[in-house]
Amino acid sequence: NCPPPALLSPACASLCLQEALQVLHHSQSEACARLCQALIGHLAPPSSDPSHSSLLAGLQDPERSRLLEAVMKWVGPEHLRAMFQQLKGQLRGVANHRVANHGLQRLLDHAPKDVVQEVLAELGPVLHEPLARGHPGVLTSLAGACQRHPQLQPEALRCLFRV
Length: 163
Hints:
Number of domains: 1
Helix content: over 70%
Strand content: under 5%
CATH superfamily: Leucine-rich Repeat Variant
Number of strands: 0
Largest sheet: none
GO biological process, one term: ribosomal small subunit export from nucleus
Structural class: mainly alpha
Pfam families: PUF_NOP9 (PF22493)
InterPro entries: ARM-like, ARM-type_fold, NOP9, Pumilio_RNA-bd_rpt
GO molecular function: RNA binding
Protein name: NOP9 protein
């Protein structure tokens, strides 16, 4: 289940892949989507065990999480929905994890409305926890995501005022 070491080591390999994703996205090349899918397949392969999320494990790993975060910037809404499904029900732990919370922030930065709505429903009542752990970016990203979707703003404000 571990990704090939060449994807992550040396550290410049990860940086090169992140830059390649950005360049391919800006060139509007279909290769960007293929590279995103390949990276997801290597960094967070599907698990036969429904209780194990390889995406969660990848987001908790400092090396793999950087590439997964980069993929979230450029992958489309359908892939983001699929990635969210692997995290659903575990968002509290993701938001409170010292590394994985950054992946949640990237997901929220690019997530479609239905994903943001589900994150808000799951995390809204416990938003004080990531803040107490020193992860204010989770609140900022969730608020920014709700700003893009005006229908979610009243509930987001209620949750923020409870914090």
